[in-house]
Amino acid sequence: MRAVAKLTLALYLCVEFALRLSYCQYDEDNTERKPDKVQCVENLPEIYVSADYLQFYIKKDQEEIVTKFVNYLTVTCSAVYGTNLVLTKDGDKLRTTNEDQSVITWSTSKPGILKSNYTCINTETDCKRSVIVAIIPALQVLSPKLQTVDDKFHTNYNIQYGSSMTVLCSGPAAARLALTKDGDPIITEYESNTTIKWFVRKPDLQISEIVCIDLDTAINSSVLIRVEPFTYITSQNEIIEPDFTNLENHTRIQVYRFPYNHQPVEVFCCGPRTVRLLSPDDNKELISESVNNTVVRALIRNSKIGTTLMSCADNKQFALMSIVHVVVTPQMEVKSSSNIRYVGNRYVMRNGDPLEIICSSPDIAQITIYKKEQTIEKLQTINGTSLRWFERKKHGAEIYSCFIAEIEAYVTVDTLPEAMEFRCMSHNMEYINCTWMPSTANIQFALYYFNNREHTRLCKKSHAYHEMFCIWYSSDYPGYLNDVSELSFLTQSCNNFGCSNQTFHIDHVSIVRPVAPQGLRIHSITSRGAVIRWDSTYMICAGKSLRSSKGDFLYKVEYLYSGTNPLEANSSLVTCYLRVCEMKLTLPCAGQFYEVRIYQRLKRAVGEELWSDFSSISFHTVVDYEDVADSTCNWEPRKTKEVMTYFTQMLRKETRLEMQQIKEKIRMLKKKATRLHTDFKR
Q1: What are the residues whose beta carbons fall under 8 Å from the beta carbon of 655, sequence distance 6 or more?
Q2: If 531 and its partner were Cys, which of 64, 153, 229, 523 is the partner (CB 3.0–4.6 Å)?
């Protein structure tokens, strides 16, 4: 056996030496040669550039990125294949820091205005990737009436005529900055040490390119400013807000919707003397009148269902215009036993009440009423211009529409909102977070805590579709109460129709999520087990003292080894006494590296989400001869030291066995000699 053990050790050492030798290849001159090069197309290094709050990932086909003047710049280089990375700037090697074996980083503060070529080189494969980083002056436009549009070449700003305008240009030093307008210099003033300013109280109608130039490097940034006429609509001397506004080809389009036979509306066009109200199709001037030197007005009577387009344009520059789109919808009358509200060109009523819809048009043959985009066939004719639809009791949220000549009006059947799936979680008695889902969209909510008939508002927000939440901290006033056994909350949810209140009563202890176990430590380690100890958790919840030793906590113990998924141990073996908890853990294999994770949860807590985060501890079990001989564990030595330990133990055991055999032979010989001596005497 001793000879077999020595032979096995020699074979292992030979295999280990051969494996190490295989990692290196040598040329004929006995010099070490690098591994074969991989295809750079598939193994290019990656570059990340971050500047202030901006981050850029350099794509394979990207050659340049542009960012505005920043306070710091960071360039990160990484490669999956190989660990020898070098980062250069315009050919000069940079002094980098290593985040890990395959990532290097270079940072600088206040990089200034520059344009540099950064190259990430993997010296193991000679693969590299370059990117040009251009830092340009920061250019900002401010105005009370401003819209921003980004295209491929410029950032465009649309400003309404009559509004003031401020242009700010920032760089390393204000004295080295300049502004131009369409190539002509602009007289500016200093805003700060790094910023110059150009202010215009009332700019003329124009399309101008504003350029901010750094005089030291000639690097510049530019924007396109459009000062355009603007329009607004009034009805009965009150300004009406548009239903929505959008931009098309950098032109502002305002859309208004009015019901058939609505009060006449007036359209006002504001600009200099040359401004006119025109038809966008043929640029013919519409019937209008001048109010003063800068305003013209037109009247729309809303007597015909359809659309009307008008453009407020400058005769000298037709590209400078704003368009008004007036939509006259069918007249829609809605009746119900409950109150009906008209909000945002839609009617809102309570769910479950009778519903009556009357749709009117000069030509009844053109009227169609839809329910969920499906035509309603059975309609009652009231007179030659109206159709009626009636439902005795309406359930569910629905949208009805009155459709005439591709123009439609809506009626929405809505319900009072409710708070669904209301739940709360206390985080180690430090703060509590309550969440719930709204039953409808576009609502306002408020959360109250009440005790002894007193209500304390905790949160008030507006939300749409997404999950609601409210966090109550101990530092708030009044602070989160962790000494009461029951918590009572009231939710108030409101939409266009009204508000609904709901109350929720929660067992305080059952929603506490404690912190992870503290003070994990190893008490002892064997070849197939370990004793782990940690400090017992102590907290005061709902006026009750809770400690692990009193049985208020449950524990979950998991272990991992050899790349396996977490395996759960028998947590019933956990014992707690006074301030210490202990787990005698039985492990399947010796000579393995183990990670043990321990979670805790209050017994009264309900739900897997109330388990704490885990605390973990790692260790390596010892190796015994009997454990190594067990082939079911697939024991593999990590180091030569462990191999020597294993074979030393094996040789010692064989030696002990041989010594026992020799002693047994000596004992037998002594016994035989004694018997022979006795026979000889006889």
Answers
A1: 2
A2: 523
Residue 654, helix vs strand vs coil: helix
The CATH label, of 2.40.10.330, 2.60.40.10, 3.40.605.10, 3.30.360.10, for the domain at 419-507 is 2.60.40.10
Q: Where are the domains of the chain?
A: 2-29, 46-136, 138-228, 230-329, 331-413, 419-507, 512-629
Task: Give the amino acid at 22.
Answer: S
Cβ neighbour number for residue 653 with a 10 Å cutoff: 15
Q: How confident is the model at residue 347 (pLDDT cuts 50, 70, 90)?
A: low
Q: Is the CATH number 2.60.40.10 carried by domain 46-136? A: yes
Which helix (H) or strand (E) segment is 22 a member of? helix 2-22
DSSP letter, residue 631: G
CATH number for the domain running over 331-413? 2.60.40.10
Q: Residue 496's closest CA among 400, 414, 396?
A: 414
- Which backbone phi and psi does 609 adopt, to 5 degrees? -70, -10
The encoded tokens of residue 502 equal: 């709901």
* Strands of 191-250, DSSP E: 195-200, 206-214, 220-228, 230-235, 238-240, 244-248
| 73 phi/psi in degrees, rounded to 5 | -140, 135
Residue of higher predicted confidence among 119 and 332: 119
Q: Taking each helix axis from N to C terminus, what angle separates 2-22 and 640-681, rounded to the nearest 10 degrees? A: 170
pLDDT in tens, 370-388: 887 778 887 888 877 788 8
Tokens for 663, please give them: 């002693």
The whole-angstrom separation of Cα 251 and Cα 652 is 92
Residue 204: closest CA among 182, 233, 188, 185: 182
138-228: CATH architecture: Sandwich (2.60)
Q: Return the amino acid letter for 448.
A: Y
The CATH number assigned to the domain with range 230-329 reads 2.60.40
Model confidence over 202-250: pLDDT tens digits? 888 788 889 999 988 888 888 888 888 888 888 888 888 887 777 776 6
Domains 46-136 and 512-629 in one fold: yes
From residue 15, how far is each of 8, 24, 383 by CA, in Å?
A: 11, 15, 102
- pTM beyond 0.70: no
DSSP assignment string, 250-269: TEEEEEEEEETTPPPEEEEE
Side-chain-side CA neighbours of residue 156 (13 Å):
17
